[in-house]
Design brief:
Length: 268
């Protein structure tokens, strides 16, 4: 079976001058046009509001799709992260906050980018995604969300997330048309922090080994990078380019999350 790569960038930087956002958007747009490989931007509402014209410059880009990452990066669930450094807890937002954040951002995407938002990445990511939270799924479903990227941590609310944790429907929770895409492996910023930000080759080598395994098993790989991390110590996004070229060499198919979701809905 052919492996599939879904690349989603969380576009979330909220610097006052928008400098990092603009640099990332311009370079990512150029890179994806050059390689003709699709990607999805999961955008924080505040980031979109502050940089509307930079996002609008990308309208009609043939390889980019736009979805959301809440309005102000509020967590959908509490994270209790346990690793060698100890235990850290970040509290999730209230249901009211979540409803407001998600609806507001979908409205912004509609008003500013003419996008019908179907997808969300949950800030920080959580063990089990939203399997244990039908109340949150209900709020998202009401807001028009049909696919989620919330399962981004393992049983210690840490990483890596095993690649074999594949996309699944939230049917048992009562939402048979909602699809979860677990984020496989590491989020880029966590692994790059561990390996050293300037160690681009070390990061790419790690991912190449993972991609060999994913390709051999024909898995779906939902991969997460961020706007700010993608250009940190790497303004040309050489790291991202190397990963995408290697995925192509290994025979991966590439899709946006939106297209994968639509296809999965038809095949179901
Ligand atoms: Zn985020």
């Amino acid at each position: 079976m052919t492996a599939t790569m879904l690349l989603g960038y969380d576009v979330e930087h909220r610097g006052a001058d928008g400098e990092i956002t603009r640099r990332f958007l311009a370079r990512a747009a150029e890179l994806h046009a050059e390689l003709q490989i699709p990607a999805t931007f999961f955008i924080v509402g505040q980031t979109l509001e502050r940089n509307a014209s930079a996002f609008q410059a990308l309208l009609g880009h043939p390889w980019l799709d736009f979805q959301q990452h809440t309005y102000s990066h509020v967590l959908l669930k509490t994270v209790c992260q346990e690793n060698d450094a100890g235990t850290r807890v970040w509290r999730g937002g209230t249901l009211e906050q979540i409803r407001d954040e998600v609806n507001r951002t979908s409205q912004l995407l509609k008003d500013l980018l003419h996008v019908n938002c179907l997808g969300i990445t949950g800030p920080y990511g959580y063990y089990r995604g939203l399997k244990d939270r039908p109340d949150i799924l209900e709020i998202l479903h009401e807001a028009g969300i049909r696919f989620t990227r919330t399962f981004g941590r393992n049983e210690c609310d840490w990483q890596p997330v095993p690649y074999e944790w594949q996309p699944f429907w939230y049917a048992p929770q009562g939402f048979p048309d909602m699809l979860e895409f677990p984020i496989g492996g590491w989020q880029d910023c966590i692994l790059r922090e561990e390996l050293g930000w300037a160690n681009l080759d070390g990061y790419v080598a790690r991912l190449r080994a993972d991609m060999d395994d994913i390709a051999a098993r024909g898995l779906v790989w939902s991969y997460c990078q961020h706007d700010w991390s993608s250009i940190r110590e790497d303004p040309e996004m050489r790291l991202t380019r190397d990963i995408l070229l290697y995925a192509r060499e290994k025979g991966f198919a590439f899709q946006t999350y939106r297209d994968y979701y639509q296809g999965a809905l038809q095949r179901r």
